[in-house]
Design goal:
Protein name: Tetratricopeptide repeat protein
Number of helices: 22
Keywords: TPR repeat
Strand content: 5-15%
Amino acid sequence: MTAPLLAEAHRLAAAGRAAEAIALYDQVLAQDPAVADAANNAGVLLRRQGAQAAALRRYRQALAAVPDHADAGWNLGRLLLDQGEADEAFLHLRRAAALRPSWERWHGLGRTCQARGDLAGAEAAYRQALAAKPEAVETLNNLGTTLQATGQLEAALPLLDRALALAPDHADLRYNRSLLLMLMGRWAEGWREHEWRWRAPGFLSPRRRFDSPAWDGSPIEGTLLLHWEQGLGDTIQFLRYIETARGRAGRLVLEVQPPLLPLLHDLPGADLVLPAGTPLPPHAAHAPLLSLPHLLGEPMPSPAWPYLSAETERAARWSARLQGEGPLVGLVWAGNPRHANDRNRSIPLGLLAPLLQQPGLRWVSLQVGPRAADIATVGAGSRVIDAAPALTDFAETAAALAQIDLLIAVDTAVAHLAGALGRTCWLLLPHAPDWRWGQQGNHCCWYESLRLWRQPAAGDWACVIEEISASLPRR
């Protein structure tokens, strides 16, 4: 009874008449809810129309009728992955790949494993995908980034190079390759490739458009506009190049994120510092901050002398607020929760409990945002001074940092600020660190006052905390 309706629905779907096809699939399913092909195909059409919830229901209906329906499992898994439900997506995509192996399905499974943090599973799936399609640029790219995340840098680069030979204009690939090159310390090539970031779909900082031309690093007589991009820590880190850039321009205007403005009102090299969102003066050329090493021909980073300072009056207020006996140690355990790598770089405050038990030390939290509430959640209020309510901008944070003997922090803007101020900071890094910190060693090539503490294996904060605990100052 349903066969003619189903055949007609398939014909309408193939002809691009989606609404009519969906109506017929609904008729089929009204007569027999167990017709899995009707439910699956209706789900495909509904998803194309943006009706994600309805599509999800139809895919589940198809699988309820035929648990081994490879297409329904594949479609459901992809939709769940797009919705951020990677764990359930993994179950469906793994089954779909086993039922009907193909490059596309192994690649999709690899993406899901990456989203779950299962790097070994991702590597295995991507290698299966490459066995089916050796010149798949997307798979070469993803396998390269997976190997990078597991510390296999020398194995990752040939994969990205191979993909680049196949697709020289693949912006996401070239952006990923730039991060790998810089992580490996190949700075000149890395900075050059980093200019592809603006065209990469995964790069979240949009390219700015101005009436002036992009600066090429040559001397100009007029005003040079340098503007922020990406995060607060990036801005602080690349302010080191301002004075060099000023030497090639008649005047320099710097645009920064508003929370940084009070800190930078007298920044050497900047004739004018403005907050983002305010009108900009006329300028002869413009450049983003993270392009400066490439434009200035200074590819090799070197530890900079302190190039920021705390305001005297603010520092005096914080001195009075934090006075006491014993070394004062600052803590920052979490970064921006929207950061793509936040689950790896941030630490539950409870893991730092062994540090707080060390005798003779005083502790102050410079943690801001929602995670500042962790102090109360873990019951550390009697041992940790919560400075968050008074940290209204980065000038206040700088003044607070001027009072501490040591900052222990994860990879956040506060660690960059400590380095730019020349304050001693122990930086806790995940096993797969951000490109700027390099792959090994405890020396920081950007800030002389930073010491790097690295996870020996992915997720192993306990070992890092144990080492730090043994190294803390004693009275």
